Amino acid sequence: MTQIWKTTGFVTDDAWVIETEESQAGSNERAIHGLTTFIEKADAGETGLGVLINPADDVSRLQPYLEQIALVAVAFPAFNDGRAFSHASLLRSRLKFEGEIRAIGDVLIDQVPLMLRCGIDSFAVTNATALKRLGEGRLPGIDEHYQPTARPSAEAGSYSWRRVS
């Protein structure tokens, strides 16, 4: 079962549904569309939309529509496919997207801190270990980093390149 997690904890009333041919959003739900469908709806003037960015998609195509997007779901189809890290980072740093970015797919506990640093702020989690550890508030990671990220962090002392999570 998929659960949505944010840094504040698990979300119980998430209304977002990824639309497919088999699954459509109901009356109390909000649809996440594939990139092509999203652009068609955005060109028609719809706002408050959700968009799914798959690994091979060009995230820069969203630039003219940023004001119409409520949620961007970046897909991690396998633990070894990290293109969604780049998508999230580009959305935050180059495109200046300030809305919600959600990781979907193969979300593992070891990757969550790195996803947070790239600007992802919600997670569709199905992995049993990840669900257990997130429920316990046990995130792995390193407190000090040598590179800036999409998520602001505090400076750690005398070195301009050292940051604290």
From TrEMBL:
Domain of life: Bacteria
Any Pfam family the entry gives: DUF934
Region (Disordered), start-end ranges: 143-165
Protein name: DUF934 domain-containing protein
Organism whose genome encodes this protein: Rhizobium quercicola
